[in-house]
Amino acid sequence: MNDSLITALLEDLKHPDEIVRDRATQELWRLWFGQKGVVGLDALRRAQMLLEAGNTNEAELLLTDLVDHQPDFAEAWNRRAVLYYAQGYYRQAIKDCEQVLQLNPIHFGALHGLGLCHMALGNYRSAIRAFRKALDVQPYALVNQRFILECTIKL
């Protein structure tokens, strides 16, 4: 990926103008989903269609095959983490989020997801750390600010 483009988009996430931030967010997602070209994007789309159709086992198999064959595809790991989170498999989702962050430390979706998983398990300090890291990348993400408050109250 183009490092100068990523740097500019990260700066735009901190811009006071919501339109600029939204555009940067969408562009980062586009880059992440498109990391492996049409083949990777198509696999992610098929997994999403399977999920929407209620075929979670097939979606999991597809995503697992994808991460097995393309272990550097951060968004494949992230999509599987989302699937695990939705099924209540928080520990598996945490492992996948951590893999995403090893590959892409600024992945605000994985940081947010990591926070959600820790929050669901009652690991409020870990959740707060994850949400704070997400805020470092996306300081205007009010949802992360709200979750930090919720976790702080539960300590």
Structure class: mainly alpha
Largest sheet: none
End-to-end separation: 40 Å
What is the gyration radius calculated from CA atoms? 16 Å
Mean model confidence by pLDDT: 96
Structure, described:
This protein is an all-alpha fold. It has 9 helices and no strands. It has helices at 3-12, 18-33, 37-52, 56-69, 74-86, 90-103, 108-120, 124-137, 142-154. Helix 1 (3-12) runs antiparallel to helix 2 (18-33), helix 3 runs antiparallel to helix 4 (56-69) and helix 5 (74-86) runs parallel beside helix 7 (108-120). The termini are far apart. The model has no long low-confidence stretch (mean pLDDT 96).
List strands and helices in order, with pairings.
Blueprint: H1 3-12, H2 18-33, H3 37-52, H4 56-69, H5 74-86, H6 90-103, H7 108-120, H8 124-137, H9 142-154
Helix pairs in contact: 1-2, 3-4, 3-5, 4-5, 5-6, 5-7, 6-7, 7-8, 8-9
